Amino acid sequence: MNRAQLEHAIRAACEVSKDDELIIFGSQAIVGTYPEAPGDLRASIEIDIQPKNRPEAVDDIDGALGELSDFHQMYGFYVHGVLLDAAALPAGWEDRTVPISHPVGTLGGVGHCIEIHDLAASKLTAWREKDRVFVTTLIIERLVAPGGAARAHRRPAGGRPPRHAGAMG
User: Fold this and answer.
1) pLDDT reported for residue 148
2) Which among 62, 32, 27 is positioned nearest to 42, based on CA atoms?
């Protein structure tokens, strides 16, 4: 994933969802903070997006831009319309997002990318092997400090306790 692809995804998802603001919360939110992050951190061809003001439009996004769609076949990446409830994000994440907007690239639409430390905390809370590898790479590349994902120990915004907080220390 690169910045141009992210902007294209924002532009397309805004059009499909009829919302001019989106929340980008999967691994490719890294492009918001580090557009030139190492390739293995930007390797996913999936962008997780929820329309900010029209969350009910996630199915529209998934149908038009999702995996195996014409969009996916044409551009080699896809937009996964998914509700934010799928992620466990630390309290206050909304105030730390990194906005991506461009008059041409996104046609003025805004993709609010989850900030890198909140992204790391979310990945650690999920505790899947691919997420642990992602966060380890963030640390190795010095994109987050080893303690920078400490937000994972706080209660996520949705009120659910982290699933593996005790194993993250």
Assistant:
1) 64
2) 27
